[in-house]
Amino acid sequence: MSRRTRDAIVVGGGVVGAACALALADAGLEVTLVEGREPAGWQPQQPDLRVYAFAPDNAQLLRTLGVWPSVLAARACAYRRMRVWDAAGGDELQFDADRLGREQLGWIVENDLLVDRLWAALPAAGVQLCCPARVEALEQDADGVRLRLDDGRRLEATLAVAADGADSTLRRLAGLEVSRQDYGQRGVVAYIDTEQDNQATAWQRFLVSGPLAVLPAGTHRSSIVWTLPDAEAERVLALDEPAFNASLTRAFAGRLGAMTLASRRAAFPLRRQLAQAYVAGRVLTLGDAAHVVHPLAGQGVNLGLRDVAALHAQVLRAQQRRQDWSSPERLQRWARERRSDNTVSAYGLDAINTIFSNDEMHLTLARGRALGCAGKLPPLVSALWKRAAGL
Asked: Which pairing describes strands 106-110 and 51-54: parallel, antiparallel, or unpaired?
């Protein structure tokens, strides 16, 4: 039995939850992290299929938390260019680090590596771990929250943070409802080798069936996220390797020459899911527990870490002003800011997916031309990239 009151309890130890625990500890709070199972650990010889296009603002957040150097030292593939085009025709939309005055546009990083390095930093930050443990019950009042865990422990805190994923238990216990839209699509993921150098470029080709992203993981090694309708994803996963390689190479129009599988394949269902509110009393929700978006622009984990960065900044501002960091007014201010940004991003990605995953004639004629026109306007290119990069 543990009844000592903490400042914050973070439920969920994935990338966003672990980063939130570290960020609140960095602000001087006493933090407990609750996670159902201990991470397996990063295996350098077995790259994680789940990768992120990590944005510069979130790299800075992890640098502030003392984690980013160890991620870079392990394995993070910088990309310097992005090229986006429509299979139906038209010019490309291109982003180039040199033209934007950057050393790189971002990094491709494995989920397991990020979790491994974040967890390694928890003890030194003073974060108390309850693992393995899951939340079973929640009570709260104006002064704080009380959680009962499945191992019998009871925790008390000023604030509880739901960072336990799209099917969040804590969010449900707090009564925070969500709206869902199933896309009827799956993201097929794998590592591949390409005949030609991928040029440190993140590539995306829009097909009627959905976007195909090819992300650099080495000179000739790439990670793919191939969005397909459910039935087509099942068919592609069932193909033998030569047939899969041929189908993938064809879908990418042979842009990097022949493509060959370099790992197992997997697929995950795609949906949009948005919490209707981010705060219920002394419980707030962030990351996938608050918002799930289409992966076509790689914004999922980036949006979640921006939730964390905004919360971190708000706590620090309150402390500098000798004000209550957990006041309902401050929590609601954070919620309004992040819900607005995340909702705009979610519906924007939804619109892009709808427009480009479509064989309607007028859209087909217009969209490639629109990409090309956007690419010819440097201020627009810069604004689009800054939005994606969180700058």
From this structure: antiparallel
Tokens standing for residue 138 = 């929640």
Residue % of the chain over a pLDDT of 90: 81
Please say if the pLDDT value at position 218 is more than 60: yes
Nearest-CA neighbor of 171 among 29, 345, 4, 12? Answer: 12
Kindly list the structural domains of the chain, giving each domain's residue range(s) and its CATH number in brackets, ordered by start: 5-71+111-180+272-354 (3.50.50.60), 78-110+183-270+358-389 (3.30.9.10)
Q: Residue 82 forms beta bridges with which residues?
A: 95, 202
Instruction: Give the Cα separation of 353 and 204 in Å (integer).
Output: 12
- pLDDT for residue 1: 43
- The C-alpha R_g of the chain, in whole angstroms, comes to 21
Q: How far apart are CA 74 and CA 31, in angstroms?
A: 27
What DSSP line would sit under 105-150, residue for residue? SEEEEEHHHHHHHHHHHHHHHT-EEE-S--EEEEEEETTEEEEEET
Backbone phi and psi for residue 184, each to the nearest 5 degrees, phi listed first: 65, 25
pLDDT tens, residue by residue, 43-74: 999 999 999 999 999 999 999 999 999 999 99
First and final C-alpha spacing in the chain = 45
Record the tokens describing residue 141, joined without a space: 């009042």
Q: Is 91 helix (H, G, I), strand (E, B) or coil?
A: coil
Q: Which two tokens stand for residue 249?
A: 């190479």
Render pLDDT for 257-294 as a digit per residue (tens, 0 to 9). 999 999 999 999 999 999 999 999 999 999 999 999 99
Taking the C-alpha atoms of residue 192 and residue 387, their distance in angstroms, rounded to an integer, is: 29
Q: Does the predicted TM-score (pTM) go above 0.85?
A: yes
> Does residue 15 sit in helix, strand or coil?
helix
Distance, in Å, from the CA atom of 150 to the CA atom of 135, rounded to the nearest integer, reads 6
Q: What DSSP string runs through 218-268?
A: SSSEEEEEEEEEHHHHHHHHHS-HHHHHHHHHHHTTTBTB-EEE-S--EEE
Measured from the Cβ of residue 276, the count of other Cβ atoms closer than 10 Å reads: 9
Question: For residue range 107-152, what is the model confidence (pLDDT) as tens digits?
Answer: 999 999 999 999 999 999 999 999 999 999 999 999 999 999 999 9
- Environment class of 344 (CB within 10 Å of its CB; exposed 0-12, middle 13-18, buried 19+): exposed
